[in-house]
Design a protein that fits this description.
This protein is 74% helix and 1% strand. By secondary structure, the protein is mostly helical.
């Protein structure tokens, strides 16, 4: 018999309104790690299309790999975090794998080697995401999950903001020296791993979802999580509907790199300022992550999540209808707001629906569905762009996202909203 997080007695939950210390530390780890990752992400579209000469379809396949490489590993990361009850161990392995992937970029000379390096980096991200989110979800009270995830995502967004700035500065000092960007990225990633290892405590959840700090043998005699338990998650109605809605919406998502290339193609920005597009998006994300997290706690996480994809649709339309720097700026505002309304809100919406002993697994299932949908969307968008023009591809995906919103609206509004219970 499962025990849900919502079944924990009120007295067993923390009552402080402050964001738990571990959430802040995990946010700092994500900040440092994202500086490393976004340094590479900011130059990857230019590096792939200009330095390596990849076509839009080839870049679409690469972007699909970038998203899809995390699907299976996300599931494994969540499953083993719950089965071993060692989320820090699993997440730490993911951070280390991501750091090692940066060194793999140095000898890259073709699409195959670049795909391998990107695949390893994304596998590391997939492995660490669900265990890290489990540490956040169990660190504080359920009625403040949106705020906790919002604070973490805000710090994460700060790293995403700083990474492209560092890449921009390095390339300004040494134009075209992508190897220097990769070396600095690796060194920064190692700092993130060290902070995680030394400052994040290991937390083991007991059968009620209350963190344990005892010895490893303290769990002896309790049945470990099995694959059959994971399959049972799909029998939870609210979770199943949220999962389907997230998958449908993500399949109509255009990757940031593609959207920025559309702005570049329409002369809304120049190549010189291309890396800073990531900065602007992250700045909006940083400004809105905590406020929208608090709004989701108060008015419903499902509603805020759905609204986020409406903002993404506005970003699509702005990219093709509004020209010049002003149009590009408005597009980036919508894009950053979309991330702030969805990235942290989705796991915050999923966690209360899940059995306490399968929280990491359930979060990983939702995130894997999103990653898989984005991978399919990236390949499809690259194919449409290759067959037609960039604007036509954006129009196609704008129509697809509109249809996805209509299909997902009924699903996600029926998913059980725990806003009232959380109060």
């Amino acid at each position: 018999m499962y025990v849900s997080v919502r079944d924990i007695p009120h007295g067993a939950r923390p009552t402080t309104a402050r964001v738990p210390r571990v959430v802040v530390v995990l946010g700092l780890v994500s900040l440092i790690t994202d500086v490393s990752t976004e340094m590479v992400t900011a130059v990857l579209p230019l590096y792939a299309t200009l330095a390596l000469g990849l076509t839009p379809l080839a870049y679409g396949l690469l972007d699909g790999l970038y998203q899809g490489a995390t699907v299976v590993v996300r599931l494994l990361g969540g499953f083993f975090a719950d089965r071993l009850r060692r989320p820090k161990l699993v997440a730490g392995a993911g951070y280390a794998l991501g750091a090692a992937a940066k060194l793999m970029l140095l000898p890259v000379a073709g699409a195959g080697a670049l795909s391998a390096a990107v695949g390893v980096d994304r596998a590391g991200k997939g492995l660490r995401t669900a265990p890290r989110d489990l540490l956040i979800a169990t660190a504080g009270p359920r009625d403040r999950l949106g705020r906790s995830f919002g604070v973490h995502r805000a710090l994460d967004a700060t790293g995403a903001l700083l990474g492209p700035v560092v890449a921009f500065g390095l390339l300004a000092l040494a134009p075209g020296d992508f190897d220097m960007v990769f070396v600095v990225s690796f060194c920064v990633a190692v700092l993130g791993v060290l902070l995680f290892v030394h400052r994040v405590p290991e937390r083991r959840a007991d059968a009620r979802g209350v963190p344990e700090t005892g010895a490893p043998g303290a769990r002896e005699g309790k049945r470990p999580v099995s694959l059959r338990d994971v399959a049972e998650l799909l029998r939870i109605g609210g979770f199943r509907r949220l999962l389907c809605a997230a998958a449908v919406l993500s399949a109509a998502t255009i990757g940031d790199g593609f959207l920025y290339l559309v702005l570049l193609r329409n002369d809304s920005v120049t190549i010189r300022w291309f890396p800073l597009l990531f900065v602007c998006t992250s700045l909006v994300y940083l400004a809105l992550a905590v406020p929208l997290g608090r709004v989701s706690d108060r008015y419903g996480r499902n509603r805020v999540f759905t609204t986020g994809y409406g903002l993404l649709l506005c970003a699509y339309l702005t990219a093709i209808l509004a020209g010049g720097a002003a149009g590009a700026a408005l597009c980036l505002v919508f894009l950053g707001a979309y991330y702030a309304a969805t990235d942290g809100v989705l796991p915050a919406a999923a966690a209360p629906l899940l059995p306490a002993e399968l929280t990491a697994t359930g979060i990983s299932v939702v995130q894997a569905a999103v990653a898989g949908g984005r991978a399919l969307g990236a390949v499809a968008f690259g194919a449409v762009w290759t067959a037609a023009e960039g604007d036509a591809a954006v129009w196609t995906f704008a129509a697809a996202l509109t249809a996805a919103l209509l299909a997902a609206a009924s699903l996600i509004t029926r998913a059980r909203d725990h806003r009232t219970e959380a109060r």
